[in-house]
Amino acid sequence: MEFEFNFNRGFASDNNSGVHPTILNALAQVNNQHALAYGDDAVTQKAEDVFKSIFGADIEVFFVFIGSAANVLGLKAITNSYNAIICADTAHINVDECGAPERFTGAKLLTVSTPNGKLTVDLIKKHVHGFGVQHHSQPKVISISQPTELGTLYSIDEVKALANFAHQNGMLLHMDGARIANAAVALNQPFKAFTKDAGVDVLSFGGTKNGMMYGEAIVFFNKELATDFMYTRKQGLQLASKMRYISAQFIAYLSNNLWAQTAGHANRMAKLLAQKVADIPGITITQSVDVNGIFAIMPAELIPALQKEYFFYEWDESRSEVRWMASWDTTEEDIERFAATLRKLVLQ
Questions:
Q1: Phi first, then psi: what are they for 276, rounded to 5°?
Q2: How far apart are CA 82 and CA 138, in angstroms?
Q3: Nearest to 311 by CA among 299, 325, 301, 300
Q4: Which residues is 57 bridged to in the sheet?
Q5: Which domains does the chain have, with CATH numbers?
Q6: Rg (CA), the chain
Q7: Any idea which of 4-8, 59-63, 316-320 has the lowest mean pLDDT?
Q8: Which of 111, 94, 118 is nearest to 290 (CA)?
Q9: pTM above 0.85, yes or no
Q10: N or C end of the chain: smaller count of CB under 10 Å?
Q11: 12: closest CA among 347, 330, 333?
């Protein structure tokens, strides 16, 4: 059966991108034979070993379907219902997960306003109090996104500072790494350097936004935190029966630097787009373009017209700020056409 759909590559989200051919080939390879279900297969064992080769043998890794599940279940594993989780007000767990973190953990989200999506020790200090007071939610986790939802990056020292502060106060540091490959490429650092070695306790490791069909991983850098996690994953409806289809993707993704090729390309395309639109009258880029996202203010009356040609999101309607995302399969031609369309609308 052949399908004929006319899809236009847009700039709304890297979730909209296709699946890398290498990933599709990996899926085909594990489709030829039967294998034990629920992760008791050789493919999943190999995928776990790949993660251990990256982060060290003293970790636990669990595969799930989607990023929200990785965040929510990872946080559930390290909190009780009387705890509080500190995050940026722009964090995915606060804005885009439909209240799932609070529903499934029972913990309270304490949000912090930031100019660039990044938490600092000074910004979160106001929430770190009330320990041992039975009337207060007990602060337990600092959750950061790397890169942030505004496309900005934490340096290794910034992650370390938050981790040290968390641990000094009996708390834990969680990292939402939905676009962790984009961060690693931009930082020019191995994953371990800005996660485990920097003091992160639990990591959501993403793949879907960077060339995989689906699949995320939850990595526990302290194995004791994962003691009962297999039950949490099962109750959270994320124990895949045919887990080898997630595992095979991660093996292909993390082999031969495929992750770096795809993320590096997406980052370069974002910087190219930023260059192409920077001199267009009325366009103001509002955040540093560290990875594959561009945030810009543009004339409000032109947004609907541009959206008729290219799908993208209006980020902050109050100030006509939009978000444009580049993907692993964005082409230079896509960038040229988009920039030319925008320029024409502005100058007409």
A1: -70, -30
A2: 6
A3: 325
A4: none
A5: 19-254 (3.40.640.10), 258-347 (3.90.1150.10)
A6: 21
A7: 4-8
A8: 118
A9: yes
A10: N
A11: 330
